[in-house]
TrEMBL record:
Naturally occurring in which organism (per UniProt): Natrinema zhouii
Start and end residues of each SAM-dependent methyltransferase TRM5/TYW2-type domain: 82-329
GO cellular component terms, semicolon-separated: cytoplasm
CDD domains attached to this UniProt entry: AdoMet_MTases
Protein name: Class I SAM-dependent methyltransferase family protein
Single GO molecular function: tRNA methyltransferase activity
Amino acid sequence: MEVPCVRVAREAGEATRTSLAEADLIDDAYEISVADGQLYIPVTDPDAASAVLEEYEIVLQNVTERESQTTPGELLAFDPTYERLGEAALIDEDDPERAREIADAILESDLPVETVLNKASKVKGETRVRDWELLAGENTEVVHREYGCEFALDLATVYFSPRLATERHRVAEQVDANEHAFDMFAGVGPFVIPFAKRGAECVGVDINAEAIEYLCENARRNGVADRVTALNDDVRDVATEYENWADRLVMNLPHSADEFLESAVLLASDDCTLHYYDIQHEDDPFGPGERAIRAAAEPEYSVTVETRHTVRSYAPHELNVCLDVRLER
């Protein structure tokens, strides 16, 4: 039967499916299908899907009606909220009995999940990790795949957000082979690894030693270890070693990136693209970041804001945004 589908390359399938699932746009009555190397994901609302994934085409495609699969909601008296990360399901429940009930339903359903984790704290500390309650499975380590890259990580020791997969892909598509890319807060490598796969020489710095260990492992997993340098340090302490080196800088530390702009200017080459992430009130989401960048970079650099991009809603009246900025000496 012909139904509206998002057509996407297979390597981008999981991240695309995740974005559509978060927007509750996948039509579960039909199977996701593959034809001619492309993935076809059935959607309930083509117009809404186009708005969520502007870069992909909506087409009519013959797909198979899905055989009945048991979902967690069908085993409960309500539809539970959960997030998928590899073969783990992440939930956020304060009530221990309700958390246990949801975990049991997830495991009993047809979801390909072996681990269920319940958030036990907010993100905290310098390394931005949180506590987890292990409701099912052996540990908090997972393997996540997005846009053709594979990331091993331990949620108990590193920060990682699968919700930013589409944003990371947006930035990675701008990277050219042989450019010098520097991630100032690299984590397990969700920016560094796809940059290196596109041929860039990359440096990733993080204060979290566990994250750097996973970054090294992920570089090996993805066959780019020869193009990745991983440093466990405060970027402010290593910036002088890479002065005037970076053709591209990533600053994904939204609550305090402005504190590191002096180091960013030191790292920037004569013509550098800066991806600056910020969280600000919806009344002026881009202004504070732009003013901070100009204050740090001018007059040594001319500053051109090439893109003002809203990544997602962060909290009531607060937006997570990105400024793509060109710095020219």
